[in-house]
Amino acid sequence: MTAAQNTHQDAAELARQWFERQCQDPAVALHVYHAPGQLEIGTQAPPGMELADGRRIMPHWSEQEARSHIQMILRYTPYLTA
């Protein structure tokens, strides 16, 4: 699998996770966090992870809009290197 394929699959999975969490609490501000070999959606950076992009995933976006935004972030995030 190529890095581009990984990025597309990872963005789709993160968008799904974002959608579930955003539906549970529409007021929460969710961001993408990364570490080598790891990605996570959350409100704060988990231990050992850092913010991938300062822009939040907007609560009014569709899952596809979130996926496109996340894909753009992942293109410039060195998470694939372990």
Keywords, please?
82 residues, alpha+beta, 3-stranded antiparallel sheet, 2 helices, 3 strands
List the helices and strands and how they pair.
Layout: H1 3-24, E1 31-35, E2 38-42, E3 50-51, H2 63-75
Antiparallel strand pairs: 1-2, 1-3
Strand order of the largest sheet: 2-1-3
The helix/strand order is: HEEEH
Uncertain stretches of 5 or more adjacent residues: none
Question: Helix share of residues?
Answer: 40-55%
Query: Given the C-alpha coordinates, what overall shape results?
Result: globular
Give me the secondary-structure category: alpha+beta
User: What value does the Rg take, in angstroms?
Assistant: 12 Å
Number of helices: 2
Q: Biggest sheet, in brief?
A: 3 strands, antiparallel
Mean pLDDT: 90
Structure summarized in a few sentences:
Helix content is 43%, strand content 15%.
What this model shows, in words?
There is one protein chain. The protein is of the alpha+beta class and 82 residues long. The chain has one domain. 43% of the residues lie in helices and 15% in strands. The protein has 2 helices and 3 strands; from the N terminus they run αβββα. Strands 2-1-3 form a 3-stranded antiparallel β-sheet, with helices on one face. Strand 1 and strand 2 form a beta hairpin. Helix 1 packs across helix 2. The longest helix has 22 residues. It is globular and about 35 Å long. The two termini are 16 Å apart. The mean pLDDT is 90.
